[in-house]
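Page 37, continued from 36.
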């Protein structure tokens, strides 16, 4: 009998405390993300918020923008409203030259930092991208093929813009 009374009192106490109403006012919740760039040595080479003004960079930016808008099925106004360009530049590395664009994608309260890249010139010493020419800057059509074939080191981000 003592155990039953003890057990019932525990159950009632649990129910009482679990049903307690919270009278606190709802507060807006914020999330702050602070990048710790110093922890990642590779990021020291990235030039953020600098846009190359060279003719070739501007040309590849226009190609990227065209393909990006097509892949995401977005208009100029949507692009201008939701995409904030941070930087774009050519980057040389072992296999050739890549074009990289860094930007923010903003939708409602969310902001995402994104980096897209694709090869624009392949060195003759590279064994990648066998179907593309060597030692010349690639055309828009060659870049489209490279991206559509999900070639190594090349991608343009696709977002879902539906609600």
């Amino acid at each position: 009998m003592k155990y039953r009374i003890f057990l019932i009192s525990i159950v009632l106490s649990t129910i009482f405390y679990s049903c307690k109403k919270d009278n606190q006012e709802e507060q807006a919740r914020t999330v702050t993300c602070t990048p710790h760039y110093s922890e990642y040595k590779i990021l020291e080479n990235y030039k953020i918020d600098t846009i190359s003004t060279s003719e070739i960079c501007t040309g590849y930016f226009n190609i990227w923008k065209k393909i990006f808008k097509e892949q995401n099925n977005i208009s100029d106004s949507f692009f201008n409203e939701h995409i904030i360009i941070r930087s774009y530049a050519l980057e040389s590395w072992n296999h050739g030259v890549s074009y990289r664009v860094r930007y923010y994608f903003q939708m409602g309260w969310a902001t995402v930092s994104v980096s897209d890249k694709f090869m624009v010139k392949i060195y003759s010493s590279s064994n990648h991208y066998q179907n593309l020419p060597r030692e010349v800057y690639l055309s828009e059509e060659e870049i489209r093929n490279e991206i559509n074939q999900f070639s190594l080191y090349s991608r343009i981000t696709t977002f879902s813009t539906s609600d």
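The longest strand covers residues 110-122. Flag for discussion at group meeting. Residues 20-44 have pLDDT under 50 and may be disordered.
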